[in-house]
Amino acid sequence: MPSRRRFLQTLSAAALTLPVMPLSVMAGNTEQPYQGPVLRVALMGLGGYATLVARGLESCQRARLAGLISGTPEKIRSWSEKYGIAGKNCYNYENFDQIRDNKDIDAVYVITPNALHHEQVLRIAKAGKHVICEKPMALNAREGQEMIEACRRAKVKLLVGYRMHFEANTLEIVRMRQAGELGKIRFFQGLSGFRIGDPGQWRLSKQLAGGGALMDIGIYAINGSRYMVGEDPVWVAAQETKTDPQKFKAGVDETIQFQLGFPGGAVASCLSTYSMNNLDRFFLNGDKGFAELQPATGYGPIKGRTNKGELALPHVMHQARQMEEMAGIILENKKPLIPVDGEEGLKDLKIIDAIYQAVQSGKKVSLKL
Ligand code: NAD
Q1: Which CATH superfamily is domain 4-163 in?
Q2: How far is 317 from 301, CA to CA, in rounded Å?
Q3: What is the pTM of this model?
Q4: pLDDT above 90 (res 24)
């Protein structure tokens, strides 16, 4: 098991032992059983992260696990038994286009290695189902654009699995910034990394991951810089360091530092790495105050403080909260405070493309998002 996953799963298991606010209470719905619409979701790729999403779905009111897509018959057998999924709602990677005729499934959540997202999302859109796609949405901006267009043509929604966009302490900082409580934003720092284990895993394959740490964990600092600063960057500069070229082969980045410039004059300084642990920190500085999160993007509980004191909003399992909110977005057209649509995923891909370009050229790259 990759060390990050083990680390994050340990955190997650620990989080489950802490007092966790039930979604029913969160929704202010303690007496009446929920009777509104329910998003019926099929999970594609039954690996480590899908396991957490399935667990999250167990406590959702507005979303539930309704189908399975996997290339491993044994997983289909054990998962369908565990979650009570009928055989007619189970597919493999060859036949999942038939989901088009399945009236029991509204959306497919793609949780496979990064390089597979593009083709899988195109096929799901063609089958007429809404799509939730894990981050990074694709390998590059061209693929991301094609996915957006395919979903638009098919009149289905495309969302990206940005779970932090629904996390309470994160949202409190965004609220403070929007209310002007931090003043004019001047600086953001995003540190995102962990020490990766097994050299044979897909995350260290250029072909399946599309890159290295930046695609997998650095994207949290990229995405975070935008929702924390509240603007999209207009330039990027980047520098790469590689200490282990055996493990991190050509095209697989180990460590990249990057800087972003925002139209209002704020700058961001970020680090993305596969070779350091305990690196999950956001810091936002404005003329009137500051906000800090550490851990900022792990599975929680997220901890932080601002110039006004500790941030201590209750922990809700991220995957449960995300699925509950995404059901509202897909079924009731709700608008989240921080967008999670394909355009949002595409912006991050454009920044990733520009960071790799800046590493290659050694020059600042202009961005137009
Ligand atoms: P994983 O290796 O645990 O699971 C991947 C699954 O895809 C496995 O079940 C595997 O069998 C399946 N698969 C299908 N085709 C494959 C192929 N050709 N090669 C390898 N595996 C194949 O990975 P994961 O950690 O679950 O990550 C899956 C996706 O989820 C990635 O895009 C990753 O970035 C994303 N992710 C997101 C978060 C988050 O917090 N939002 C956390 C972890 C992973």
Answers
A1: NAD(P)-binding Rossmann-like Domain (3.40.50.720)
A2: 8
A3: 0.93
A4: no
